[in-house]
């Protein structure tokens, strides 16, 4: 856990302190880590050099902070604001406060923070969901073909073994279940290995690019696992059916 120097003005400081001069700058810890900046450095912003006065905890709606008067002077905008953040004493009051503000200011947009942040993410891009669906469908199709070819080759190479099993009394259902279990076991090993690689890749990406957001939820993991298992079962079904239909005599004579 990080150790904060102090909390002041709504900021929890990792290093440095609050504004002292008009051209002081505060950045959050993720920006500082991603850009390798420290308190005391100068940063070019809005065609002006700012002195990095402090590094604060992230989560305040921005990465960089400058005094309001300085922002007004540099942007040539006086007594105007585009966004106001309103903090409720309790999170459960959010809906009531939003409704009251809608009635008081009907011409202005009022969004809960969660909704507002979702609007600023890449998930809100037009066509993104369709693109993800197409990519997932292609991946499932490729996985299906790979498993189909792998299991078909496996059945061909084990023709004599399947013939021995059938000559010993193994039923068609037993042969099919045996091959499907093998395919699902291989798929399960692949799922575990893939999730481990994804977790390591996420940690590496966040270490190199701390400001990025990489979500790896259990919901997506379960969704991917179900797709993989379904693909492996479907891909192995025809080879399993073909193996179950083999004639024991022909299978034993197979070279």
Key words describing this protein structure:
six-stranded mixed beta sheet; 255 residues; alpha+beta; 55% helix; 9 helices; disordered N terminus; 3 domains
Indicate the proportion of strand residues.
5-15%
Q: Indicate the overall shape.
A: elongated
Task: Compute the number of helices.
Answer: 9
How many structurally independent domains? 3
Largest sheet: 6 strands, mixed
Per DSSP E runs of 2 or more residues, the count of β-strands stands at 6
Q: Taking Cα atoms only, what radius of gyration do you get, to the nearest Å?
A: 30 Å
How helix-rich are the residues, as a percent range? 55-70%
Mean pLDDT: 82
What can you tell me about this protein's structure?
With 255 residues, this protein is of the alpha+beta class. Helices cover 55% and strands 11% of the residues. It has 9 helices and 6 strands. Strands 1, 2, 3, 4, 5 and 6 form a 6-stranded mixed β-sheet that branches. A hairpin with a 2-residue loop joins strand 1 and strand 2. Helix 5 packs parallel to helix 8 and helix 7 runs antiparallel to helix 8. The longest helix is centred in the C-terminal third of the chain and has 37 residues. It is elongated, with a radius of gyration of 30 Å.
